[in-house]
Design brief:
Largest sheet of chain A: 7 strands, mixed
Oligomer: homodimer
Structural class of chain A: alpha/beta
CATH superfamily of the largest domain in chain A: Type I PLP-dependent aspartate aminotransferase-like (Major domain)
Distance between the termini of chain A: 39 Å
CATH topology of the largest domain in chain A: Aspartate Aminotransferase, domain 2
CATH class of the largest domain in chain A: Alpha Beta
Order of helices and strands of chain A: HHHEEHEHHEHEHEHEHEEEHHHEEHEEEH
Strand content of chain A: 5-15%
Strand order of the largest sheet of chain A: 4-10-9-8-7-5-6
Number of helices of chain A: 15
Largest interface: A-B, 53 and 53 residues
Number of strands of chain A: 15
Chain lengths: 479, 479
Amino acid sequence: METLTTNDHLYLKVAKVIESQIANGVLKIGDRLPSVRIMSKEQGVSISTILQAYYNLESKGLIETRPQSGYFITFSSRKINAVPQKTTPEPTVSFNDAEDMIAEVYNNIANDNLIKFSLSVPSREFLPIAKLNKAMVEAMRKLPASGTMYESIQGNENLRRQIARWSINWEGNLKADDIVTTAGCMNALSFSLMAVAEKGDTIAVESPCYFGVLQLAKSLGLNIVEMPSDAITGIDPDDLKKALAKQNIKAILLTSNFNNPLTSCIPDGNKKEIVRIIQHYNIPLIEDDIYGDVYFGGRRPKCCKTYDDSGLVLWCGSVSKTLAPGYRVGWVAPGRYLEKIKRLKMYHAVGSTTIQQEAVARFLENGRYEHHLRKLRNTLHTNSLQYIRAISEYFPEDTRISRPQGGFLIWLELDKNLNSYQLYKEAIKYNISISPGRMFTLQDRYHHCLRLSYGMPWNEKINESLQKLGELVKTHKHS
Amino acid sequence: METLTTNDHLYLKVAKVIESQIANGVLKIGDRLPSVRIMSKEQGVSISTILQAYYNLESKGLIETRPQSGYFITFSSRKINAVPQKTTPEPTVSFNDAEDMIAEVYNNIANDNLIKFSLSVPSREFLPIAKLNKAMVEAMRKLPASGTMYESIQGNENLRRQIARWSINWEGNLKADDIVTTAGCMNALSFSLMAVAEKGDTIAVESPCYFGVLQLAKSLGLNIVEMPSDAITGIDPDDLKKALAKQNIKAILLTSNFNNPLTSCIPDGNKKEIVRIIQHYNIPLIEDDIYGDVYFGGRRPKCCKTYDDSGLVLWCGSVSKTLAPGYRVGWVAPGRYLEKIKRLKMYHAVGSTTIQQEAVARFLENGRYEHHLRKLRNTLHTNSLQYIRAISEYFPEDTRISRPQGGFLIWLELDKNLNSYQLYKEAIKYNISISPGRMFTLQDRYHHCLRLSYGMPWNEKINESLQKLGELVKTHKHS
């Protein structure tokens, strides 16, 4: 499941060994783990290391302590429900969006009493707010005119340099001059779409697809073809090849890592193959990599951009899912579309807010970002496992559950006869908000699917809300 | 010229009386003013008030002190050159933009050694930077999660309330809910254009027109009709009526107050008439009011929005010309297009940076903005008079000069045979940057015009640079 890296703490190594034995079925639900003393001898590490490892596994809901008895496995991959099936959207352009449903779900967002399973952002408890405030003050002190004057069109140079340095993590090898900063990742996608396509053109996306992308493309007058997608591996290069051979597709937009909403992650080998295909057809690929840094495995997955030597990949990112959504700090490395993107930014926005960019740059510069990410990844990983366990327990057995290896989201496939928009309406009465699957397509499908976010701290209230959701699904099913 | 308001200081009232006598020709160049003692008795005010008034007139270049002799008029409206003629663009759609010229002029912007007559922004010396920094820190302290989380789509509520309150100054009577915040004014214009027109549609603008608007419209695939414009009164309602009767125009975009680059200000009566016309034709009007607060007269000019009860006017503004260009704080009150604009903002940007908005709101709230604006207006007014005096002195007599009543800009019309792009290339050798007139049209015109900004503190270096420019024009003329 996870690979070990030399950076990991010793206790994490021990925990991961046990975790992989649970995943392989070597350890089964109900099995008792060796006592702390015995395990310490077996592994040749201290007792406190083993205690830490067990604590880590307990926090992920994988094991439990029973008083006077020891540690027991409570979680087994075998017991977990199946993964959602590969999607089969129509291969034609569709226009049937769910604008009103989206507006309804999002108008409820301001309600503070809601349990917002519908929102794909880190909860404020997970953000390093005090340190960010400090970085903002430092930025104002350091910037010429305290950041009150226009910055250069391309954006804060320090931030661009740090993103370039950071790109080593996915073998991106970017330079500061390859990057243009934007007001968040959607703004990067907006400029990218404007750069590569115009009204009447057709683009291809994954299905299901983040509704924001569908609405953005629609507002630019673009036609959309949805491609089949697998909950584990995303789109299949062969499907892409077929689509490009058959239709006049002007550009492709993918969320390659920890897709929203399907949670898939395209294997690096497939990314390489996808880049080979777009180079063959000379078609630009807009890569939304907003979740890439929030991986649960041993190392960051690569990007399509990693394999691109043609300049056809426009790689987009932001800190909205890791540091501060409200800072509106995003970027794009647009390859051969650099000049076009710079001009689009100048025409539509003139510049971006330089203070937040400088503050984020300082975070990346001095290791604070990596430190913060480690904590965030651990917390979200634990959350994801808690959710999967809870959903397996509370929802009907035939509920299919995606297996996020990063990000904030879980995609559920319920019984074909269930309608998740009806479920939304029922759940909102209990102050629980979910995202119905129909929001994520322009076709008449995914009515029986839904997206849940685990971006909130795990607690009894969350647990109860998932239990209530499960009850509503079961009631629904029998009505 | 200026009307008195009860808010003015006593010395300003005295100064304005003398100023209007100069404008009327009652006082002529070389006339000696009454001594401070006599004037004090005549006006029934203290000697120090008169001294302040004379100092104010001196700083505007209207009078001078001659040792042992007293105060003399140095400036007369009669002596000043003529105003540029009303423009006569072709009434058809044109596509011939000056993209490369614009890029050339703007690529030089980063050079710190340049005297940037080409840049329409307040110099950093005019910005209240320390107070803004303080407001930023206050904003972080006050906002939920210190402004790190997404704000509501419509934007910071406190800022929207303050803009609404402030709209009393131009009888706008806006409510907070009428307003959507944006990342600066260009971003407001971008959303507004997307809301009212789509690729292939034709819009009407003033000629000359700010090049940013021309480029934005072009990047959205819009066709542009340029309308005749007067350097004092802007577009004529009759011309607008003719254009609308003849062509299929989808929307109009105007800078009604202190136009960039022509510096015209549409008289309030004409604004009312323009709104009547667009209501008759049911055509939306995008009003760029970014310079409206920087007026030199006794009171703020009104807006087209003031007279709009149909919701057809989309009123756009920002603090980029008054407080902090780098904050990217702008807004639009889009009338009947409110829902459309909110959705466009959600699709293309998700949200805006709430910290800067809150900081600006606090500035507006506690009177700091009005206090700052009074100083800024006085300084810019003085600057504009210094420029006009210097240009009258250094440039050929047939140079036509606009008469800004607000804003940052002067528009010059040189001898028909002069080419201001050639002048740009000559001037840049002396580290002087200007904006050639050709940048402000899609037609083959304004080659003999140029735009100058007086947004920098007046000093000997500026004076010398204008003198050098004048010399270059004269050399050019005789070559």
